[in-house]
Amino acid sequence: MKKLFISLMLLISASIFSQISVGAAPENTNRWTFGGGIGVGFGSQSSFYLQASPRVGYRLTEDLEGGVLGSVSWQTSDYYRSTMFGVGPFLNYYIARTFYLSANYQHYFINYKDKYYDYKMNTEEDALYLGGGYMQRIGNNSFMQIGVMYNILWKENSSIFSSGLVPNIGFVVGL
């Protein structure tokens, strides 16, 4: 009787566990992605920098994502204060969920005040960033992205930005 009971329990448990797919990731049917980045910086002359860049995307295919990216930054020091807002579309192509290629266009609205000379400026600038980087999985469908972008519209003598090269670190959920 004991052998029959153990055999019956093994048979039942084997049939129960055969219904579970071990090691297979659940399929993500939601095509929306969310993410962004946050930046903080400190420097000389009491300078302080705070930046946030939220994003919302949609997976067009398994490896292609398009969406809208926003950015806001605030800088202040003993000599100046600056606020900048940006918005625009982006397109990311993912290579084996390890690397990515990216393009995004941003239109910036910039407010700048020089405290020393009492000079104020309101301007706008466009940027077209192309680049890519590395992705590290940090959860089931969440990734950290580390990369470099270059603003191909950057002009050394007329841009508000000091360089066209932009390193970035961000997060995305939903891939």
Topology:
Blueprint lengths: L1 H16 L14 E11 L5 E12 L4 E13 L3 E16 L3 E16 L4 E19 L4 E10 L13 E9 L2
Antiparallel strand pairs: 1-2, 1-8, 2-3, 3-4, 4-5, 5-6, 6-7, 7-8
Roughly what fraction of the amino acids lie in strands?
Answer: over 45%
Q: Please identify the structural class as seen in this structure.
A: mainly beta
Look at the structure and give the mean pLDDT: 85
Unreliable sequence segments: 8-24
> Judging from the principal axes of the Cα atoms, what is the shape?
elongated
Pattern of helices and strands: HEEEEEEEE
Residue share in helices? under 10%
Task: Report the radius of gyration as a whole number of Å.
Answer: 24 Å
Beta strand count: 8
Strand order of the largest sheet: 1-2-3-4-5-6-7-8
Distance N terminus to C terminus? 53 Å
By DSSP (H or I, 4+ residues per run), the number of helices equals 1
Biggest sheet features: 8 strands, antiparallel, barrel
Fold and architecture overview:
With 175 residues, the protein is mainly beta. 9% of the residues lie in helices and 61% in strands. It contains one helix and eight strands. The chain has one helix spanning 2-17, and strands at 32-42, 48-59, 64-76, 80-95, 99-114, 119-137, 142-151, 165-173. An eight-stranded antiparallel beta barrel has the order 1-2-3-4-5-6-7-8. A hairpin with a 5-residue loop joins strand 1 and strand 2. The longest helix has 16 residues, at 2-17. The termini are far apart. 14% of the residues are buried.
